[in-house]
Description:
Blueprint: H1 2-5, E1 17-18, E2 21-22, H2 28-33, E3 36-38, H3 51-57, H4 67-71, H5 75-94, H6 110-122, E4 128-132, H7 140-157, E5 160-164, H8 168-174, E6 178-182, E7 185-190, H9 192-196, H10 199-206
Parallel strand pairs: 3-4, 4-5
Antiparallel strand pairs: 1-2, 6-7
Amino acid sequence: MLNVICGMTPPDQGDIFLNDVSLTGMKPSDVASLGLRRTFQSSQLFPGMSVLENMMCGLHLMGSTKLFGAIFRSSTMKAEEAEMRRRAMEALDFVGFKHFADRPGSALSFGQQRIIEIARTLIYEPKVVLLDEPAVGLSVTRVAELEALLRRIRDERGVTLIMIEHVIRLVMGVSDRIVVLNSGQKIAEGQPTEVRNDPKVVEAYLGHQANE
Length: 212
């Protein structure tokens, strides 16, 4: 579903809209330019680069300097690079990881890398962020920290979060609306309290008691 939304996989039918603009048939780079970002289930950091450099890689669409200007370090390129650095540091500060800026990506724990990837989605001030199982492999403590961060992104930045996740606590704590799939079929949709008490959801995720 996330691949369809961001343009990596064409839909079999129907259309996808962002602010009344159809995304159907657009390239992923064009979709990104409209304010949509995503994370992946596995880490996407470059291990040989610093955290700050990894963050700045997410700003490649912002640059307009051509090859000649890059080779000779034109004033335009320097100004763009300074703005990229400012945005990257601001996003790191928002997630509380500013002190990690100079550390190599490989030196971070798996959970810390997940936060850096989320921070990288914020540098373009997105309208929508797609999250592919952000809590996978995280401890209970890290899940609680992730929940607090996602709520801040939603409430303080006004970003719409579309999340695929199996950690029920995180889903219930962050989501305003939930869609539940079982073997590829939608079995429930609604607010967290509605979904939590839906008999089909309870049976699919918790099983049912055998008749005695």
